[in-house]
Amino acid sequence: MDSIIVKGNGPLSGQIPIAGAKNTCLKLMCASILSEEPLTLTNVPRLSDVKTLSALLESLGIEVGRLNDGRTLALSASNLTSSLAHYDMVRKLRASFNVLGPLIGRTGEAIVSLPGGCAIGARAVDFHLAGLEKMGAKVELKDGYVHASGDLVGTEVEFPFPSVGATENIMCAAVLAKGTTVIRNAAREPDTQALADCLIAMGADIEGAGTETMVIRGVDGLHGTTHRVITDRIELGTYMTAPGIAGGEIECIGGRRDLLEAFCVKMEEAGLEITETEKGLKVRHPGGRLKAVDVTTAPYPGFPTDLQAQFMAMMCFAEGTSTLEETIFENRFMHAPELIRMGANVEVSGGTAKVTGVEGLKGAPVMATDLRASVSLILAGMAAEGETQVNRVYHLDRGYEQLEEKLSALGATVKRVEGS
Ligand code: EPZ
Question: Per-residue pLDDT for 263 more than 80?
Answer without folding.
Answer: yes
